[in-house]
Amino acid sequence: MLAATAAVAAFPVVQGRAQAAVTEGAGYRWRNVVQGGTGFVTGVLFHPSVRGLAYARTDIGGAYRWDDRTDRWIPLTDHIGWDDWNLLGVEAMAVDPAHPDRLYLALGTYAQSWAGNGAVLRSEDRGATWKRTDLTVKLGANEDGRGCGERLLVDPRDSDTLWLGTRHDGLLRSTDRGASWQAVSFPAAPSATGQGVTLLVAAGRTVYAGWGDSDGTSANLYRTADGTTWEAVPGQPTGAAAKVPVRAAYDRHTRELYVTYADAPGPNGQSDGSVHKLRTTNGTWTEVTPVKPGGASDDGGTDSFGYGGVAVDARRPGTVVVSTNNRWALVDTLYRTTDGGRTWTSLKDEAVLDVSETPYLKWGGDQPKFGWWIQAVGLDPFDSGHVVYGTGATLYGTRDLKHWAPEIRGLEEASVRQLISPPAGQAHLISGSGDIGVMYHERLTASPSRGMASNPVFGTATGLALAAARPSYVVRAGWGDNGNGAYSNDGGRTWAPFKAQPTMAKSAPGPIATNADGSVLLWSFGAADPGFRSADNGGTWSEVTSFPKGAVPVADPVDPARFYAFDTSTGTLFASTDSGTTFTARATGLDSGDSEFQLAVTPGRSGHLWLSLKWNGLYRSTDGGTSFTKVSSCRASYTLGFGKAADGVSHPALYLVGSTESITAVYRSDDEAKTWTRINDDRHQWGWIGATVTGDPRIHGRVYIATNGRGVQYGEPVR
């Protein structure tokens, strides 16, 4: 029988103490750099008993509570630390209608063998504090089916009993409000590769469970009336259009259960779907699909899609909203009915979208789209005109069923890959992220007015660099719509594509660097590809055969003739003194095989290098990489950055994500890594934060941290 371990102490939890060279408890204020969503909102849940109380979950960025007084989302899982990074994906959430302060989260981002097991968090104060139970099974909040659900439910007969549907381990039950879990007998057999339980919903005192591994002919919806015996629901629909039950909602006035279906769990891969309702009083099924997939699209193709979200109006019997999903040709929509599904209206057709607060939602064009990956739909139980729906990038809301705008303040989910804090100019920050490319942040407290960097627009940024002695010149690389590299002569405000690019840039764009004066570019690609050099602003490119394949090019901040690169496969530092034309080996015998490493240069100092290694700490060179000395104060280093020096100090401040002893945290050093001060705390950890960190060269103490799912965090000392 599957069981969970005992619950651990309530969060936040202190995870040990650092060595004597570290000062703890430095006062820092932490906030999000505002981008505005930028990630997949996989679930939204209004509390049925409390006006203005709602929760949202994301695939990699944790959970949030809506604060109706400030119109903002409050992050609830930022306390999750480095070792628990897999718990920032929220598989499911549940509230207790009878106890408004209770909240439950099922956490676990990946169900793969290399990921940790899932966990359940439970709170008695709406997520302000938590108790945790570690599970012996894996969950998959960032895998196929992540928009299904909810998979977590408080039993309608007993507030102490909870149900949790898993992907590969069947159905679990807790009888002590989530403190411990046991497997229960369930009619469908779990598999190592399937979807398992896709949804749990209460209809009166009966609990229904969706099953995602049906072949389209076998049962995929089950129920229990007594909490012990499960049975297949009689008469349920079959066929490809009803293969996977995605979501369900119960109309307590008409006693009808509405279920959305698709031929795949989504969010990708759906091409067929349907909507059905079950009258629970007599077992009658009725198909109420608004529009059947398979018709002609505007481009002459097939209008293929599935159905995703569903929500019922608690105030108006027979009023329901459902969403299409994966409808790329005609764009996804919401359908609304006021007569139990006999007729439907597309809310997209009359929608007026206002994205002035988050301009990136225009995706480099003139107009925003209604959305895609719509599997999360919520209808306010106290306001029939208040509907929200999640997309792959935001959460839209309306109060009148016509005018829509993002209801996303406070919710930031970008997976950030690159950060630059320029030493001059309007913007203190330029960021590069997955899915939303590069952003120029005129202000840290508002979404960039220019939206995503365009000309070309990137989906995911792979490289970002500026010329240290000419900071108005910036270059970027990534997966683009019209080329994979671009340059800016105004500090990143506007861009132009490179006139040419190496062939492999289209299929494997990688990191890019520019030398100190911006006269030379070096572009790296896959591990099997050579580096390429341009001395005419991307007009032509030549192969650099001596550049270590797959390495990250780094420019000297003072001398335009110098570049560096670390070959992790051999543990060798390479350097160029002819502006990247040739590279030769310098230091050898360094740690090899470390996939998480960073080579950094000290601003304003030629030849001063820092090698950050996940497993072996931090190394320093002051002779251009000819030799390195281990920094004794650092046990493990994931990423290193620099900021303005402290008053009376000549060396830039160092910022480290790493460990001085046992704590993986964020540190600052004002004395060249002799001593460190931990500047984050146990309430601000954000899971995996190893991509990049940088200080602000104009403001001592300010630091920017790239997170994998919580956007850009920035901290400043409390003065």
UniProtKB/TrEMBL annotation:
This protein's record includes keyword 4Fe-4S: no
GO MF annotation terms: hydrolase activity, acting on glycosyl bonds
CDD domains: Sialidase_non-viral
UniProt-listed InterPro entries: WD40/YVTN_repeat-like_dom_sf, Xyloglucanase_GH74
One annotated GO biological process: polysaccharide catabolic process
Family: Belongs to the glycosyl hydrolase 74 family.
UniProt protein name: Endo-1,4-beta-glucanase
Protein species of origin: Streptomyces viridochromogenes (strain DSM 40736 / JCM 4977 / BCRC 1201 / Tue 494)
